[in-house]
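Problem 12. The chain below contains 186 residues. Write out its predicted structure in token notation.
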Amino acid sequence: FLKNPTRADILKSFDYLVKTITARDNLLIFFAGHGYYDAETELGYWLPSDAEKEFTVDWIYNDVLVANIKRIKSKHTLLISDACFSGSIFKTRALEADASSAIQKKYELKSRKAITSGVLKTVPNKSVFFEYLAERLENNQEKYLPASQLFKDIEIPVANNSPDTPQYGVIRDVGDEGGDFIFMQK
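Solution.
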């Protein structure tokens, strides 16, 4: 957990994950903060706590995020980003025998997916996206909840109650094989 992380804090955390996450682990990365999209260069960024408005030295390019995700050897990685312009990026637990064959198939294949709070525009500081995401996870009664189903459950309520259009998709060129991140109830 990083509260108000700097650019260095975030990148050091990725280095730690590269060293500790194995091919048997599932990884959830959640970022809530500010983002920026430069339409002229078509580059998106996360803006850590030390980011200055006038200078990009402490901004984190989406390409840097994707490269760091690619370095992590997890079985499943799900990035959830609740930040302006987040749509510009697109411990080990095993399934039990009672998981349906559809869930088992989704879990067997590697996945690199993202759920974002919006597309290429600003999102409000009071996050409707986060409210619905937290509510769905807190009230989940399903033993196995695929990230794709989580997205389906929040997509319409968020779109109906905010100016945002949440997105779900593959993070390209980092090893996605068509699987899905599965939330498992403890």
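Discussion. The chain is about 30% helix and 25% strand. Students who got a different answer should revisit the alignment rule from Section 12.3.
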